[in-house]
Amino acid sequence: MPVITRIEDLRCIHERRVPRMFYDYVESGSWTEQTFRENTTDFSHIRLRQRVAVDMSGRSTRSRMIGEAVAMPVALAPVGLTGMQSADGEIKAARAAEAFGVPFTLSTMSICSIEDVAEHTTKPFWFQVYTLKDDDFMARLFERARAARCSAIVVTVDLQVLGQRHKDLKNGLSAPPKLTVKSIADLMTKIPWGLEMLGTRRRFFGNIVGHAKGVTDPSSLSTWTAEAFDVSLDWKRIARFKDMWGGKMIIKGIMDPEDARRAVDVGADAIVVSNHGGRQLDGAVSSIRMLPSILDAVGDQVEVHFDGGIRSGQDVLKALALGARGTYIGRAYNYGLGAMGEQGVTRALEIIHKELDITMALCGETDVARLGLHNLYVPQGFGDPTVLV
Ligand code: GLV
Fold it and tell me: What separation in Å is there between the alpha carbon of 277 and the centre of ligand 1?
């Protein structure tokens, strides 16, 4: 077993272990993948301010996200098809998150259903909602999330239509994988993954199959997003979701100060600055460069969370020091899951936690709550998308 010291090590094992179409699904951005790349590379423009001879004992990364106590302000982001990276993947990831003390968000596009995850966990998780045209389906989805004791919904507002990811189309992405010469040849090199998958009955989109109407091929993400998603979604419908749900609502996919204000107006409890991991509008600015202007617009009215490009605890620290109250990891934990199942998700969380804790100490801070702009050197114009940094 290689010595795993960073998230990149998990990614390499994930790539070797999991069928190409599912690895590629995680590791894709849309079109040229510029935004996907810049989400990670833009972090390197921000430098850290080193402080010395500060008492570093008794450090704490504990905090709160939407009022819930967290071991560190890092939630597991909603990621579709997580149960294809490892058999029963969503259950494994939710259990790892629960044991670590961070929130888990289940995607509508998950393989394990809301009920499956609820049955195998003890703490409430968050449920991510995609808006389908079918109002009955939406009402039932909220009922199911309530019955599963989900403590918040995360409404994703940046995927009315699916951004084109070339690799998914070329690979014929589907869950379960369709057997073609190419996919069979690949599966033959992924025997341990295949044996695990044969041992579970969870190989379909668990929240959709048998629940949604008017979907001709529910195994294909591109077919059912094209057929079932609400292309006409607007702020009025989002406001209705808040009433239909009646609990905490996080709005994910905000990349513009004006949209941030609209999200506050409809009663969001938190917003997530996110460009969907560079998977939707390629050419959009990286999330970390948009964070300052969103904070300027609404930071005193709503909890602002951050998603996009986090591959280390240092990235988490930079987002928090800029002013985010919470962060999300998506790919980072899926690498761990694909590499080593539940243990791999725990490993990803441990790596990020350790990097956050040590970096905080070397910046002369002992508490995540006290991180701020004073810990960073941010280039002039970084938060202005019209400036080349
Ligand atoms: C779904 O959320 C995706 O990005 O594929």
Answer: 9
Catalytic residue among 14, 276, 305, 353: 276
Ligand 1 close to Cβ of residue 262 (< 6 A): no
**Tokens 């939630």 — which residue?**
75
pLDDT tens digit sequence for 33-86 = 999 999 999 999 999 999 999 999 999 999 999 999 999 999 999 999 999 999
The Cα-based distances of 93 to 121, 231, 342, 345 in angstroms read: 10, 31, 6, 6
Sign of CA dihedral 271, 277, 282, 286: positive
The Å distance, Cα 344 to ligand 1 centre, comes to 22
- Ligand 1 centre to CA of 212 (Å) is 18
Cα–Cα dist 344/367, whole Å: 27
Q: Is the pTM of this model over 0.85?
A: yes
Helices (H), ranges, the chain: 7-17, 20-26, 34-41, 89-100, 114-119, 135-147, 166-171, 181-187, 191-198, 221-228, 235-245, 257-265, 287-298, 313-322, 331-362
Answer yes or no: is the C-beta of 109 below 6 A from any ligand 1 atom.
Answer: yes
Q: Best mutation site among 105, 109, 168, 274 for ligand 1, i.e. most ligand atoms within 8 A of its Cβ?
A: 109
- Specify the pLDDT at position 91: 98
Residue 59, judged by CB atoms within 10 A of its CB (0-12, 13-18, 19+), counts as: middle
Told to judge if 211 belongs to the known catalytic residues of this protein, a careful annotator would answer no
What are the backbone dihedrals phi and psi of residue 128, each rounded to the nearest 5 degrees, phi first?
A: -90, 135
Residue 300 CB-half CA count within 13 A: 2
Tokens of 124: 């409430």
Cα distance between residue 114 and residue 110, in whole Å: 9
Residue 139's CB: how many other CB atoms inside 10 A? 11
Could you identify the residue written with the tokens 């091929």?
Answer: 217
Whether the Cβ atoms of residue 155 and residue 252 lie closer than 8 Å to each other: yes
- Between CA 333 and CA 331 the distance in angstroms is 6
Please work out whether the CB of residue 276 comes within 6 Å of at least one atom of ligand 1: yes
